[in-house]
Amino acid sequence: MSNAASSNDTTLILGATGKTGRRVAARLRLRGTPVRAASRSSPTRFDWSAPDGWDAALRGITAAYVVPPPVPGPVHEFVARAEAAGVRRLVLLSGRGADTWGDSTFGLDMRSAEDAVRGSALEWTVLRASNFNQNFDEDLFHAPLVAGGLALPAGAVPEPFIDIDDVADAAAAVLAEPGRHAGRIYELTGPRALTFAEAVELISRASGLPITYKQVSPAEYTAALVEEGWGEDDAHHVAEMFVLMERGVIAETTDGVATVLGRAPRTFEDYVVRAAAAGAWRP
Ligand SMILES: NC(=O)c1ccc[n+]([C@@H]2O[C@H](COP(=O)([O-])OP(=O)(O)OC[C@H]3O[C@@H](n4cnc5c(N)ncnc54)[C@H](OP(=O)(O)O)[C@@H]3O)[C@@H](O)[C@H]2O)c1
Predict the structure, then answer these.
(1) Could you give phi then psi for residue 95, rounded to 5 degrees?
(2) Relative orientation angle of helices 74-85 and 108-118, to the nearest 10 degrees
(3) Which residue puts its alpha carbon closest to atom 20 of ligand 1?
(4) CA distance 108 to 20
(5) Which of 40, 55, 154, 277 has an alpha carbon 20 to 30 Å from 145's alpha carbon atom?
(6) Does the beta carbon of 6 sit less than 6 angstroms from any atom of ligand 1?
(7) How far, in Å, CA of 249 to CA of 207, rounded?
(8) Which CATH architecture has domain 11-193+248-274?
(9) How far apart are CA 159 and CA 101, in angstroms?
(10) CB within 8 A of 110, min separation 6: which ones?
(11) DSSP state, 120?
(12) Cβ atoms 174, 181 nearer than 8 A
């Protein structure tokens, strides 16, 4: 007897215009699960800084996919409202090894969101993902690659990049299987850890473009982001992620994808081929 979610259960997707949210929403819609897509610019308006609008987003919802807000704090109130609204399940996106980040100032937003969700009376599951492959074509690393060179404070410590389609597959599977993943924290990585130099080399080869990688110091990287128009605090926060990664505590691969999905994670090479074929890094 399957304990699959009823196709009438509406799932709230926060961050629904973002990299994971829109992929999770598409998967749920395809399998016939009603989706309420929410964010500041989504059909259902949801703003982490405007709690007055949260109850309307939560009304009639069975489960929610939660992308943490960029600041610590609001998820505690969100969870209280979800409990009051009769929501039964929460699936939270977080970062690989969040309980090993210690005194790092990185990821206080994700750690606060974890505290809120894990402390709730609801059925919850946390998906802790490594750096996404798609950061290279849909996010921070894309523009420098198109310009011909990526410079980051990352050296010999490799990163087990994960394909965001595996993160979305895992989120959709967890949302579709009530009970099975209750109280579980899944560490989701790709099948192999690569240095950023190796990742850029693969992108350069598959795209046929002369793209270079250069290691810089965290201070140089912070200054470069500020030069591009980032605020000091945000730039420092991103640099702190690399300082944390260089400690090596989140560099190992895990079997999280296989545990949730019963198959191996997609490779970085598979990602690079697909993105290069779509012209992702063409100047
Ligand atoms: N990138 C990685 O490698 C990685 C790895 C592990 C974990 N994470 C975590 O994943 C999260 C980001 O997830 P993602 O990559 O799927 O999203 P994303 O592509 O960064 O997009 C952010 C989403 O959040 C919404 N949003 C932004 N500010 C909001 C606000 N004030 N109120 C309500 N919604 C807001 C945005 O939509 P609107 O603009 O329409 O509001 C958008 O849908 C972060 O917590 C990050 O730390 C990232």
Answers:
(1) -110, 150
(2) 30
(3) 18
(4) 20
(5) 40
(6) no
(7) 31
(8) 3-Layer(aba) Sandwich (3.40)
(9) 15
(10) 68, 94, 95, 98
(11) S
(12) yes
Ligand 1 atom closest to 129 (CA): 6
Yes or no: say if 86 and 12 are a contact pair by the CB < 8 Å rule. no
Cα 246 to Cα 240: distance, rounded to the nearest angstrom = 10
> From CA 187, how far away is CA 257, in angstroms rounded?
8
Work out the number of other CB atoms within 10 angstroms of the CB of residue 13: 32
Shortest-distance Cα residue to atom 28 of ligand 1: 69
Is residue 38 scored above 60 in pLDDT? yes
Asked if residue 259 has its Cβ within 6 Å of ligand 1, the reply is no
* Structure tokens given for 217: 């110091």
Over range 252-269, report the average pLDDT.
98
The residue to which tokens 């894309």 are assigned: 142
| Tokens at 48, concatenated | 């982490």
Model confidence, pTM: 0.97
**pLDDT mean over 172-200:** 98
Q: What gap in Å lies between CA 23 and CA 162, rounded to an integer?
A: 14
